[in-house]
Specification:
The complex is a heterodimer of chains A (269) and B (317). Chain A is mainly alpha-helical. Chain A contains 16 helices and no strands. Chain A has a single domain, classed as MetI-like (MetI-like fold, Orthogonal Bundle). Helix content of chain A is 75%, strand content 0%. The longest helix of chain B is centred in the first third of the chain and has 35 residues. The chains are: A mainly alpha (269), B mainly alpha (317).
Chain lengths: 269, 317
């Protein structure tokens, strides 16, 4: 009994933190169905203005195009990042040599380079190649990330060497060993890496904003940012736009919560 | 990080000797080493071209002046850096960014640690629900939450309505219109978005702690607080170092919140360094040379703080 009583403050505290965490998201979701007046009157339950907000939003912004560009950029980033980083992580571990370790160390240093310090020359580089406004310009700088390489190197470390030796004995080529043995075994690592990369790519704002100059190729974060920059803000329509922009990552979060968490923490094990 | 464990190589297989000189390498081993390099080249080339090369370019660029593509070396070469010393707006953005760092990072990491410690209790009920709710803010983008916060902290927004309903304030507070309240809103936003995220790292770290060490502390008569600081925290150290480095890096490079939540205002008083860099490089009259010099100051700040972190984190006691 006393134990239960002593635990009351703990549950009160957790309830408060959980409410504060969820409240802004709940407010965003209900506001998407409310008029601006209702939003500013802090109406906390769903309303009937969803269609109206959708019309206001789509009359000013091409939501379909932005969703399409966000999806293309995020999927392209995820696929290429997984391929390039996992091959490298596997290579660093399995073909381990002093020179490769040195290279790994240099690549890890890149984690310390703030994006701000490379942004202007990157823009110039892509401008020189006429690649402003292209998806490849959005994707190329974020494909090879030291963190993902580190993550795959860690997982290659737990991949039994006996399997590699046995496969070599069976006459499998080195790339086939990676492709047919490592990739299927490490599916959980790939899932985690995919979730992290997709979410980061979907939410990326500064670089797409710099390199995507034409509004016809803008991504969802750029769309909601531009939509909020008007003189008169329609808060209902804005919250609807924010909700649409957030739905893919929220769905992924709920469906793949476990691998999301595992991926975030896998690097440090 | 664990070190490579030696692998028992079957007798028939060629012996793997990492330190053997190249000349003694078997044909197989040499071919394999080459394959290894082939595996690394795409990633290494991309990091080289997309990160190291632009970093060097930025250094050269920072010594140039001019408009648009018409850039020439400045006279003296450090002209842009000299200009930074007299740039009051840049100094203000440095102050703002450091203020966010110094106030927000400690509060966030300590709350995350406390929450993780509570959630790690095996007797806690509804554990999954608490964890999901507290981690949920990490699922939405920085631009999204910035705009939600801008809405609820607007003068006739949700926060003022509630504060007035509770009679905590007499009239609406102009949160985003005054320097200190605007900064406060940014800090509150950062705490809301990132506390649960860091908590997840600590939860994972706590699961790796040997429970017998906690029992031993209990048997020695240590209370829960003493146990937490003397047994739990030291074992979480690698995780704590990692979250500190990530948080410092993230805060120093913060852009989305400054750009979307407060628009850097009022009068630049909540603007971050990256936001200012974006402004001078890509808005109004873009000046790539000066922008590059500002970006180098940011680079040096990040590098110095990272180096200090590494040093502190590397100490074995």
């Amino acid at each position: 009994m006393t134990r239960t009583l002593r635990e009351v403050p703990k549950y009160v505290y957790l309830t408060l933190v959980a409410l504060v965490s969820v409240a802004p998201l709940y407010f965003m979701a209900v506001s998407a169905t409310n008029s601006t007046q209702d939003v500013l009157a802090s109406r906390m339950w769903p309303g009937s203005h969803l269609l109206e907000n959708w019309q206001t939003l789509t009359s000013q912004q091409d939501v379909g195009a932005a969703m399409y560009h966000s999806t293309v950029n995020a999927v392209l980033t995820t696929v290429l990042a997984l391929v390039v980083s996992s091959i490298a992580g596997y290579g660093f571990e399995v073909y381990h040599s002093p020179n490769k370790d040195r290279l790994m160390w240099v690549l890890m240093l890149a984690m310390m380079i703030p994006f701000a310090a490379t942004m202007i020359p990157l823009f110039q580089l892509f401008a020189d190649f006429g690649m402003v406004n292209s998806s490849f310009a959005v994707v190329l700088p974020v494909i090879a990330t030291p963190l993902l390489i580190l993550m795959f190197r860690q997982s290659a470390r737990s991949f039994p060497h006996e399997i590699i030796e046995a496969a070599r004995m069976d006459g499998l080529r080195e790339f086939s060993i990676f492709w047919r043995m490592f990739v299927p075994t490490m599916r959980p690592t790939y899932a985690a890496a995919a979730v992290i990369t997709f979410m980061a790519a979907w939410n990326n704002f500064l670089w797409p904003k710099v390199i995507l100059v034409k509004s016809t190729v803008q991504t969802m974060p750029m769309l909601i940012s531009n939509f909020s920059a008007g003189y008169v803000i329609d808060y209902g329509a804005l919250m609807l736009a924010v909700l649409i922009a957030s739905l893919p990552t929220i769905v992924i979060f709920f469906v793949l919560q476990r691998s999301f968490v595992a991926g975030f923490t896998g690097v440090v094990k | 990080m664990s070190t490579m464990t030696p692998v028992v190589v079957p007798d028939r297989a060629p012996k793997k000797n990492r330190n053997a000189p190249k000349a003694k390498m078997s044909k197989d081993a040499r071919r394999r080493s080459l394959t290894g390099w082939m595996f690394l080249i795409p990633a290494a080339a991309l990091i080289g071209i997309m990160m190291f090369w632009p970093m060097l370019q930025a250094l050269i660029l920072s010594m140039k002046t001019g408009k648009g593509a018409n850039l020439n070396f400045a006279d003296p070469l450090w002209y842009n850096y000299e200009r930074i010393l007299h740039d009051d707006i840049f100094k203000l953005t440095v102050t703002n960014t450091l203020l966010y760092l110094v106030i927000q990072v400690p509060i966030m990491l300590i709350s995350a640690l406390l929450l993780a410690n509570i959630l790690n209790n095996p007797r806690l009920k509804l554990k999954g629900m608490w964890r999901t709710a507290i981690f949920l803010p990490a699922a939405i983008s920085l631009v999204s939450y910035s705009l939600v916060f801008r809405t609820i902290f607007s003068t006739d927004g949700l926060v003022n309505d509630w504060l007035m309903a509770l009679h905590l304030v007499d009239g609406p507070v102009n949160w985003l219109g005054q320097p200190n309240t605007a900064r406060l809103v940014i800090i509150l936003g950062l705490l809301w978005r990132w506390t649960g995220y860091n908590m997840i790292f600590y939860l994972a770290g706590l699961q790796n702690i040997d429970p017998t060490t906690l029992e031993a502390a209990k048997m020695d008569g240590a209370g829960p607080i003493r146990t937490f600081f003397s047994v739990t925290v030291p074992q979480l150290k690698p995780m704590i170092v990692l979250t500190v480095i990530m948080s410092i890096n993230g805060t120093l490079q913060m852009f989305d919140e400054s750009y979307n939540l407060t628009l850097g205002g009022p009068a630049n008083t909540s603007m971050t360094m990256s936001h200012y860099l974006y402004k001078i490089s890509f808005q109004n009259n873009p000046n790539f040379g000066y922008g590059a010099a500002v970006s180098y100051v940011i680079l040096i700040m990040v590098a110095v703080l990272a180096a200090i972190q590494m040093k502190v984190g590397d100490k074995r006691d």
